[in-house]
Amino acid sequence: MLTIAGTARLVSDLHLRAERPDLTRRFAAFLADTASAKVEALFILGDLFEYWIGDDDLADPFNAQVCALLRNLADRGTKIFFIAGNRDFLIGETFAAAAGMRLLDEIERVGAGGAATLLMHGDTICTDDLPYQQFRRMVRAKEWQSGFLARPLTERRAEVESLRRRSAEAMLGKTAAIMDANPEAIRRALETHGCNRLIHGHTHRPGCEQLDMASGSAERWVLSDWDTGRGDALEIDAAGVRRLDLSS
To answer: How many domains does the chain have?
Structure first.
């Protein structure tokens, strides 16, 4: 289990993209504050980017800018950890090395603030959304990824734009309950990994809930997205978990 002795911060679902410079400015300010606060570790729980079409697109000016911001934080002493989201699961070791961050598994058990904490993006526990889970299995397969990454950048970018449009259309036909985390999947994840705290993003429904488990009480913290006029981070230390408002 990865253990953080000092303060940790966590963010998710920033959806950074060149056409939203306001998000990049907020991210830069957050990273500067994280460095000034001497935070030991920053965990990015997926969807840092609106989309990522491969590490060979790192030379793109916007991608290089975000990479440089992360590298600066890492060089100032903060450890950076990344769990892939449903938009940027193609981030690989090349980008990670350039940014000074470490890639984690899609579900990671971490010791932080004196508690065993389970970290994930959150899409794996949205088990009621069957079409999405089928799509997820397809794009996470090595064969699909190898074929996609072998295509020219222009083709990949066009394909992602098409997928984004189709995803937005599909969401219109889904109920809010289907797109949220499944309660049984939440409990099963906590029990399987022996944790009493779960932190994730993906659902864009920030909140905190207490759970009664067979092994005792547990808590679930959900991070906000950043691209709908809001944004937050969680900070964990020996005093517990608190939410930081980053909406302005």
So the answer is: 1
- What whole-number distance in Å separates Cα of residue 149 and Cα of residue 213? 43
pLDDT on residue 91 = 98
Q: Does residue 108 lie in a domain region?
A: yes
Q: What is the pLDDT of residues 74-126, one digit of tens each?
A: 999 999 999 999 999 999 999 999 999 999 999 999 999 888 999 999 999 99
Assign 246 to helix, strand or coil: coil
Between the alpha carbon of residue 127 and those of residues 103, 184, 193, 205, 232, the distances in Å are 24, 9, 18, 16, 25
CB 141 within 8 A of CB 31: no
Is the residue at 139 inside a domain?
Answer: no
Query: Phi/psi of residue 209, each to 5°?
Result: -135, 145
Domain that holds residue 64: 2-127+177-238
What is the C-alpha to C-alpha distance for residues 95 and 103, in angstroms, rounded to an integer? 10
Cβ burial of 74 (10 Å; 0-12, 13-18, 19+) is: middle
- Specify the pTM: 0.96
Half-sphere exposure of 206 (CA within 13 A, CB side): 20
d(CA 135, CA 198): 24
Least confident of 140-144, 206-210, 215-219: 215-219
Q: Cβ distance 233 to 9 under 8 Å?
A: yes
